[in-house]
Design a protein that fits this description.
By secondary structure, the chain is mostly helical. It contains 3 helices and no strands.
Length: 83
Amino acid sequence: MKERIRAVSASELGQYEFCSMSHYLSKEGARISGEGKSRLAEGKEDHRIHAKVITRRRSLNRFFTYLIIIILVALLLVYYFQF
């Protein structure tokens, strides 16, 4: 009989990469209690805020990239039609 291979999710890989011990303990059924819960909540909030900052920066980078392209095209058109 073939052994069934379990797929690993990206979230699980991220958890392992961040802390292999935490990954192992959660796979073994350990639960977070007390101070760990509040620290986990703080960490999740920090990650949520960081994700918002990164998303905002990516949007600004995209905006300025498009703006530079538009300006360059406008300058090329002015140069082209000037002669």
